[in-house]
Amino acid sequence: MTAVEAQPEVKEIGRDRRRKEDARLITGRTRWTDNISLNGMLHLAMVRSPFAHARITTVDTRAAEESPGVVGVFTGEDLADTQGACINAWAITTDQVTPAHTPLPIDRVAFAGETVAVVVARSAAEARDAAELVEVDYDELPAALDLKEAAEATPENGGALAHPDLGTNKSALWRFDSAEAGTGGNVDEAIAVARTDGIVLEREYRQQRLIPAFMEPRSVVVDPTGEQITVWSATQIPHILRFALAATTGVPESKIRVIAPDVGGGFGGKLQQTPEEMVAFAVARRLGKPVKYTETRSESLLSAHHGRDQWQKLTLAATKDGHVTGLKVELLADLGAYVALVGGGVPVLGAFMFNAIYKFPAYQFSCQTVLTNKTWTDAYRGAGRPEATYAVERLMDELAAELGKDPLEVRELNWIKHEEFPFTTVAGLEYDSGNYEAATARAKELFGYDDLRAEQRRRRDAGDTVQLGIGVSTFTEMCGLAPSRVLGQLNYGAGGWEAASVRMLPTGKVEVITGASAHGQGHETAFSQIVADRLGVPFEDVEILHGDTQVVPRGMDTYGSRSLVVGGEALVRAADKVLEKAKPIAAHLLEASVDDIEFSNGRFGVRGTDQGIALTEIATASFAAHNLPDGVEPGIDADATYDPVNFNFPHGTHLCAMEVDTETGETRMRKYTCVDDIGVIINPLIVSGQVHGGLVQGIAQALWEEAVYDEAGTLVSGSFADYLLPTAADTISFDIDHTTSPATSNTLGTKGVGEAGTIASTPAVVNAVVDAVRHLGVDDIRMPCTPERVWNAINRAGSGGGTVGAAAPHFDESTGMSGNVDRTTGGNEA
Amino acid sequence: MTRINLTVDGMKVSDDVEPRMLLVQYLREKLGKTGTVIGCDTSNCGACTVHLDGQSVKSCNVLAVQADGSAVTTIEGLAGKDGTLHPVQEAFRECHGLQCGFCTPGMIMQSVDLLNNNPHPSEQEIREGLEGNLCRCTGYHNIVRAVQYASGHLAAAATPTGAAEEVTPA
Amino acid sequence: MIPAQFDYVAPTTVEEALAALRQYGDDAKLLAGGQSLLPVLRMRLNAPEWIIDLGRIDSLRGVREDGDAIVIGAMTPHSVVGSDPLVAQHAALVTKAVAELADAQIRHRGTFGGALAHADPAGDLGGPVRALDAEFVIAGANGTRTVSADDFFVDLFETAISEDEILTEVRIPKHTGWGAHHEKMVRVAHQWPICAVAATARVEGGTIADIGIGLANMGNTPLRAGGVEEALRGQPATEDSVRAACARAAEGTSPPSDLNGSADYRNHVVQVMCRRAVMGALEGAGA
Ligand SMILES: Cc1cc2nc3c(=O)[nH]c(=O)nc-3n(C[C@H](O)[C@H](O)[C@H](O)COP(=O)(O)OP(=O)(O)OC[C@H]3O[C@@H](n4cnc5c(N)ncnc54)[C@H](O)[C@@H]3O)c2cc1C
Ligand code: FES
Ligand code: FES
User: Which intervals hold domain Aldehyde oxidase/xanthine dehydrogenase a/b hammerhead (chain A) (predicted)?
Assistant: First the structure.
């Protein structure tokens, strides 16, 4: 116990702390799941279906079983009783049609790449060798491939059904209507009025299929040799995975421990309970030996869930002077072959966001989810919200073009003014805070908006071959998934709370346990900053533990930009509870009244005196427990669970300048500026990284990425040679800045940032490309805006056409001397 | 099995390997050098980049037997013996040039190679020099900053007058 | 990710390598830099029983001058070719094409001969060697033979090298003082070209004295834009004449349709790229 010295207050929140986690990652001291090697560990290789839809007639495993090093070969039939099932946690309607999903199918495969059998061998090489020897006979079935055709197929019209026994490809129809919900007017009336005396825009946009393409391929190790079965997996959702393993295999949850060690990116792509995890679990239990399965990149692209894949039919009504009066959204969403963990919920997450920052008086949304014989789809960075933002931000540019006005002017006419917050939207959400004017003004200034517009006019007038376009996207999103009550209303299978614990160690160090599991977001650092500030302890003394169900008893894991706003709030509350517990002890030790105790900078002081005691000293004292007040339990550790009462709504203004070579259709990014309002920033360095990374993923949807299937249902863009991720040489440096209107729904005033860049950038880029050539008669270009599409749009009108479903081989079996291979020419994707 | 002798991160090693074993598998599975990782099967991603006799290569695209007689440096051998980080490692941390860290070993090894060949690259030269390395997290912005920062600091170390351009992480 | 089993030999002379080829015949594959072959083996698109590694044959490596030609050893890595002063001086088109080929790591391992023997029509070197009238020296049981670039490329991934032969070197007639330009169109940087045009030209007194133009990914082999060359020889080195001539760039091509563009599109864009490549080459030639 020492006298309180005047300490300068060092605020951690807002500091650009270098990341704690980096020391290991930059030196190669990493624990990716594939790095784990256990004594006696066996290796798995999967046998996968080459067909999109087929009956499995026979599986001959004899040759594989004879192959050197092979311990066993298992089919769906062999594991029928133990393999469990892949679950859908969110039936979006009570009558949703949901096909059963067994990890290894017994008699029928429903997409190319589906696992059919598993080979277990002493080494990964031997497992792969033997997998080549498994002979599977298939009877091909008609495959439902095209989304629109699949939506129309019935047994009567003979259209292909993804699961013939279900009798339909339609899974669920989810609707929202502002008139019915009482949150706004009748959209059909608004459209009817606008048809006679106003503007009606009718557009159809395609959200192409994307692949999350995290850099670390998925990997799973299962060790059944202890009392508990330990599962290491490259997953975003250790807790949900443990629940699903237990719930579908009958193994008690208490006998399963799931660890997500270092995880190399996820972006929603590792938010899944995968067949491979289930198979590894079943095989390990069957053999009583640890097993490992690591997918190849090709397997990952083929079978890890895909994202987006929607057709969006949109009708916007406005008055002649540009005030929006109604928005009607009709979506078709491709689920792929199965309804994945969140599955049909992804487009529904977008349902509340099509109205965006604008004051639409009437709104209607409907989404039909459809089963096809393609890889299943689920969350990919942004999940539902990028689709919504794309549609509305493209439409606002179209409306501006129709009116002959600047796109920013039209937005301003319609957006919620800063003095109107809190604002209840036509979709029924309450936006707590925001200032679209401020973010836009800052973005215009940083971007040099007026100068670029002037240059654009000059180039147009001169008829330059390279034209300049400026794209705008003033986005908002809802993040911080999610209030459990809201999730309950939406029929989601779980809550949206998050748990945290703060343990005060006797040595004065602090251990923090969070249910939010990181995979690159820098939680160790940002969470340490929050706790350091709250408890007044040094940043270095805080250790963040996560990603292990044994260490972290409860958690809802990481997705939907929820870690900071939900997980962070839980932390704050746990820390506050620690202080509450410590306070009576402090009073006791200081021989003062509890009412006179105040806490600042890590010390409890007695008001009006210089007496004080550090929190860490109380931790030691309460550990020893020699001198505690009567009735006070030893220990000041605390747990908290936080269930958010509302979402939060980051927003921002993104401006993009694109150059388009009108002779070739090639595009080049010239400048990209964004000013995001993400509330209070814990660590600006980490935030900048999240924004940059998000921007490039969104830009990549606009320009490069597309998962393309051929007419037989084979994924053509099945390797990194054909699924085009951009490199450093394809991207530019960004100008980013922030405005701040603190969120009112959490203590720290933070808003989510993980998905903002991705959500906002796609429409900004496409708007810019279209703007560059609008004077040539173009009003849409389908994504990705390939040189060919852009060129077609300029020269033949239309939005540029589909993508040829064929890839040029560069690695060919006939490489070198002999052989004569025809180039595949596939069909066009509709 | 074929006998190979090589030096990996300064350590002499000698092993019998199957000719089909890739250098990256040799590093990971035989030597336990799991700092070097595998991100693809078409040699597009660069996550497996190491130095073979002083030049960057994709270790998934080299057979272990081809490396017989050579010296290999991996991310694990880049720091000094006393643990002093290589300036490029330092720069990646300083500029937040990594998030999940999966691409990082390859990015760092390729950045070192780039700076060996061109100590003062322009932004465009940095971007093109890293075109064989994919990163899904960072959007490359801060990776480029890191290489610029390292270039400045390497130059400052080499020329005490320190004419190098200062880059501050953004 | 793991190739099927094979046996491995690493001869140190061309003779030993030829002997190994004769012995293992059909079951063997030559390994140069491995940058195309190893992905093939890893994805198990091919599973030879024997791999004959040319990497230990020193005589196949290096660039030298031989009278009117420069000679590039088949096993010379791209990075060496790309920085070689002889190549830059006498075959600038190769220097420019190599600079854009794949990425730094692959250029360290991949070889000049390997890339040409691989004969991917989308490869970056086929166009330049055709434009430069290179000759291919191929060693076999009965000594060596020389094949012109026009005859070397037979079909998709198929060359004039037969199963018991080895490409040892490529001879490129000196194009000293010629301007050169390589115009490559990719969607992302780590990709093979959608289409590429390699042009090299000599200008005398404002007139195009001679010109060579090679095309990548416009057919099953690298092509030569003969029509454009013919139309330009002896013409004034001006944008107008180039523009008119390049309208013939798609003559006789049969480009693929794939994810990155349809045949129609390629046939259009090759004309624009051809014009740009030729203009670049003329500029380099002092026009
Ligand atoms: C990710 C990636 C991107 C690439 N991008 C490009 C690109 O943009 N442009 C481009 O041009 N290339 C590209 N390449 C291919 C690269 O250029 C390869 O280096 C080249 O194609 C093969 O050369 P290699 O020496 O590695 O040959 P290898 O892969 O060893 O051999 C290729 C084939 O040629 C045969 N062969 C090799 N040498 C001889 C010989 N001397 N005699 C007879 N047969 C022989 C082999 O048996 C084999 O069939 C890329 C490769 C990768 C992996
Ligand atoms: S693993 Fe080697 S380049 Fe991807
Ligand atoms: S930091 Fe995650 S892939 Fe680069």
Answer: 27-142
**Nearest Cα to A306, choosing from A278, A337, A260, A265?**
A337
CATH of the domain at A556: 3.30.365.10
Q: Is residue A637 part of a domain?
A: yes
What's the average model confidence in pLDDT over A492-520? 83
* C118 Cβ closer than 6 Å to some ligand 1 atom: yes
How many Å apart are CA C262 and CA A802, to the nearest integer? 10
- Read off the pLDDT of each residue in A411-436 and give the average, rounded to a whole number: 91
Same fold across C7-52 and C179-284: no
Q: Which of A112, A137, A136, A116 is nearest to A53 (CA)?
A: A112
Alpha carbon distance A194, A325 (integer Å): 8
CB < 8 Å to A25, chain B: 98, 101, 104
Mean pLDDT of A761-774: 97
For each of the domains in chain B, give its residue range(s) and CATH number, in order of start.
2-77 (3.10.20.30), 87-158 (1.10.150.120)
Q: Is B71 exposed, middle or buried (0-12, 13-18, 19+ CB in 10 A)?
A: middle
Q: Give the C window 45-74 contacts with B, CB below 8 Å.
A: 51, 53, 55
The DSSP string of A735-765 is: EEEE-----SSSTT-B---TTHHHHHHHHHH
User: A41-69 pLDDT, tens per residue?
Assistant: 999 999 999 999 999 999 999 999 999 99
Give the gap in angstroms from C-alpha B142 to the nearest C-alpha of chain C. Answer: 19
Cβ of residue B39 lying under 6 Å from some atom of ligand 2: yes
Q: What is the per-residue pLDDT across A96-118, written as a single tens digit (0 to 9) for each?
A: 999 999 999 999 999 999 999 99
Determine the 3-state secondary structure of A334 from DSSP. Answer: strand
Q: Which residue of C has its CA nearest to B51?
A: C105
Calculate how close chain A gets to C85, using CA atoms only, in Å.
26
Phi-psi region of C67 (alpha: psi -120 to 50; beta: other; left: phi over 0): left
Residue A402 falls inside a structural domain: no
Q: How many domains does chain A have?
A: 1
Q: Is A520 among the domain residues? A: yes
Average pLDDT over residues C270-278: 98
Give the residue from B48, B60, B131, B134 with the most C CB atoms within 10 Å of its CB, the best one to mutate: B131
Give the best residue of B61, B62, B144 to mutate against chain C (max C CB count within 10 A). Answer: B61
Query: What is the model's pLDDT at position B158?
Result: 61
Ligand 3 pocket test, candidate residues A21, A215, A236, most atoms within 8 A of CB:
A215
The pLDDT of residue A558 is above 90: no
pLDDT tens-digit map of A308-319: 999 999 999 999
Domain topology for C60-173: 3.30.465
Nearest chain B Cα distance for residue A484, angstroms: 29
Q: CATH top-level class for C7-52?
A: alpha beta
Contact B19 C41 (CB under 8 A): no
Question: pLDDT-based confidence at A408, cuts 50/70/90?
Answer: very high
The residue segments making up the domain with residue A586 are 22-28+497-642
Tell me, yes or no, if the pTM score tops 0.90.
Answer: yes
Q: Which two tokens stand for residue A581?
A: 């517990």
**Across B115-144, average pLDDT:** 97
> What's the mean pLDDT in A72-91?
94
Q: Which CATH architecture has domain C179-284?
A: 2-Layer Sandwich (3.30)
Residue A5 amino acid letter? E
Could C190 and A727 be called an inter-chain contact, meaning their C-beta atoms sit closer than 8 Å? yes
CA atoms within 13 A on the CB side of A727: 27
Interface contact flag, C39 B43, Cβ < 8 Å: yes
| Ligand 1 atom nearest C166 alpha carbon | 42
pLDDT of residue B140: 98
Tell me which residues of chain B, numbers 128 to 167, contact chain C at a CB-CB cutoff of 8 Å. 128-129, 131-134
A724 found inside a domain: no
Helix (H) or strand (E) segment spanning residue C82: helix C78-82
- Please give, rounded to a whole number of angstroms, the shortest distance from the CA of A265 to a CA of chain B: 6
